[in-house]
Structure formats: structure tokens, C-alpha cells
Design goal:
Pathway: Amino-acid biosynthesis; L-arginine biosynthesis; N(2)-acetyl-L-ornithine from L-glutamate: step 3/4. GO terms for molecular function: N-acetyl-gamma-glutamyl-phosphate reductase activity. The chain has 10 helices and 13 strands. The protein has 313 residues and is an alpha/beta fold. It folds into 2 domains: 126 residues, NAD(P)-binding Rossmann-like Domain (Rossmann fold, 3-Layer(aba) Sandwich); 173 residues, 2-Layer Sandwich (Dihydrodipicolinate Reductase, domain 2), CATH 3.30.360.10.
């Protein structure tokens, strides 16, 4: 069966990556918009309503506008903006989030694709909250280092043009108003969002979120080994999530260093527990354009349409 797919916002970083995934599929008919009509609401509305599934790769306001153009109740929408990620009328697009999430994705016509930093944070935290090892009242902090492609076309152009200010890592979002914070709280079940410190590095793609923990923050006397076991149990059988062994520094590190780009060009997320009985680091790495954006959207599309979840990935 062939499905009609439309990408609204196909000129952006995520949109272009989506088209790269989708153009290789034999089960998809891509609906294309004329460049001259790219911002024409009438033509966009026509294509949105003609599609079996539409991806919205737009700023928040434009995504909300696009949804108002939809009249066909059979068109499924996967939105890549932050507009609907904590909206209870939309299903969060992380199939591995919790039992029953895939059934929700199959049944809905409104899917909110997760943010890249949020995906890594949630994959680490949600299973530990659900397992009772990390209290929902825990006050957490997290640091994320990411490639510059996460900043979109303008940031990519800036980095590729070069300049002394871009050579070193650049922290941002220091006012604690990062757009991923609401979903990081809601989708983990935490009472408060973490203190979050994202950093852009001078490399194209790859992302790693680190969450430091003291044993006093954990419940039931949880040890690093117990955290790793809980993550491994939660993600058992998941083809896109790897939980690496605890204590295997030779396998998990390269000469003592962590490879932020170790999942690049995949739809995989790797989860690690480092540390000891006094201090612990949880780390999740992924490709911010793969499992952190376009790859995740294609995975959700596959789930919704009943295709092989790994098709095209």
C-alpha cells in the first residue's frame, strides 16, 4: 500500500532530512509544493488535506496555523515544533516512553515529535521514576552538548563560515527558559523541570545529555547497578535503544573519553550509567538529526501506518 506524505516546511534542517529518508521509500508518494507557493495557505491546505500523513517542520506559530488548515479527519499530523508537546490532545512521539505508547500512536491523528535534548533526558529519567528508583520530587540538573545542526540553517551557515567565537563550546539558554523544559518535566513525571545547561559544540551533529546524581536523590537505596538494571529492563527488546553495561570503561569510553558522536547517522540512542556509590552520571547520546528529530518522526510514522518500525531507518 502506498501512502501520500506531505512535508510542510521542507526547506528547513529537519524537513530536508525527512525528505532524504522518505525519498528512498517505495511505499510512499511524496506530495511536493511548488517553491513559489511554499507560503501560500491555500496550496498548503490543499496538500495537507490530500495527505494520509503530514509532517510539520515549522516554527510554533506556523505549526498552529497549519493545524487550522486541516479539514480532513483522516490526515495524521506529526508536528516537529514545540507547540503541542505537552498538549493532552496530542500523543508524544516517543514509542519507547512507556507501555502502551505505540498503541496510542497508532490510534491518534495528532503526534508531537519530541525535542532532541528532551528525548535524551526522558529516555534516562522516565524509567527510573516509573520503577520507583528516582522520586518524582527529585531536583535534577542536566547538561547537554550538541552539534550545531540543532540550531537550524542559520547556525549551520554561521559555523560553516567560521569565526574565532565558534571554535570553543558555547553554553546557551542560561536564563533557564529553554523550550524543551516543559516536555522534560511532563513526560518524565517530575514535579519540577531540571536546571538545564545546553552547550553547542563546533561539530555538525551528535548530542549527549548528562544527569549527575547523588545517592541521596535516589529511593530504596538504589545503586548505580540498580539504575543500569532498571534501564535495561525497561528497554529490553527495543531495537533503537541500547543500555550499555555498567563498569565497562574499556567498552564505553575511548581512552577514558566519551564519544558524543557515537550514534551519528543512526536512529539509535545509547544509555550509560557511570560512577560509584558516592557519585553517579547518567548519559544518553543520540544523533540530534536522527533519534533527536527526523529519524524519530519517521519511526512514529512507521508505527502509525503499521509499517515495519525500522523501515527506512
Amino acid at each position: 500500500m502506498t501512502h501520500k506524505i506531505y512535508v510542510d516546511g521542507q526547506e528547513g534542517t529537519t524537513g530536508l532530512r525527512l525528505l532524504d529518508y522518505l525519498s528512498k521509500r517505495d511505499d510512499i508518494e511524496l506530495l511536493r509544493i511548488d517553491e513559489a507557493k511554499r507560503k501560500d495557505p491555500v496550496e498548503r491546505g490543499r496538500l495537507l488535506n490530500a495527505a494520509d500523513l503530514a509532517f510539520l517542520c515549522l516554527p510554533d506559530a506556523a505549526s498552529r496555523e497549519a493545524v487550522t488548515l486541516l479539514e480532513n479527519p483522516d490526515t495524521c499530523v506529526i508536528d516537529a515544533s514545540t507547540a503541542f508537546r505537552i498538549d493532552p490532545a496530542w500523543v508524544y512521539g516517543l514509542p519507547e516512553l512507556a507501555p502502551g505508547q505505540r498503541e496510542k500512536l497508532r490510534a491518534t491523528k495528532r503526534i508531537a515529535n519530541p525535542g532532541c535534548h528532551a528525548t535524551a533526558f526522558i529516555l534516562l529519567v522516565r524509567p527510573l521514576v516509573d520503577a520507583g528508583l528516582l522520586p518524582a520530587s527529585a531536583l535534577l540538573s542536566a547538561t547537554s552538548i550538541t552539534g550545531y545542526s540543532g540550531g537550524g540553517k542559520q547556525m549551520i551557515a554561521d559555523y560553516q563560515a567560521g569565526g574565532p567565537a565558534l571554535h570553543s563550546p558555547r553554553p546557551y539558554g542560561l536564563n533557564q527558559q529553554h523550550k524543551h523544559l516543559p516536555e522534560m518535566r511532563v513526560q518524565t513525571g517530575l514535579g519540577q523541570a531540571p536546571v538545564f545547561n545546553p552547550i553547542v559544540g563546533n561539530f555538525l551533529k551528535g548530542l549527549a545529555v548528562t544527569i549527575p546524581l547523588h545517592p541521596s536523590q535516589l529511593a530504596n537505596g538504589a545503586t548505580p547497578q540498580a539504575l543500569q538494571a532498571a534501564l535495561a529492563k525497561h528497554y529490553h527488546g527495543e531495537q533503537f535503544i541500547r543500555v550499555l553495561p555498567f563498569g565497562d570503561d574499556a567498552g564505553n569510553l575511548s581512552g577514558g573519553f566519551f564519544d558524543v558522536q557515537g550514534c551519528n547517522d543512526t536512529n539509535r540512542a545509547d544509555l550509560f550509567v557511570f560512577g560509584n556509590d558516592e557519585r553517579i552520571n547518567l548519559i544518553c547520546r543520540l544523533d540530534n538529526l536522527g533519534k533527536g528529530a527526523a529519524g524519530a518522526a519517521v519511526q512514529c510514522m512507521n508505527v502509525h501506518l503499521g509499517a515495519d518500525e525500522a523501515k527506512g531507518l
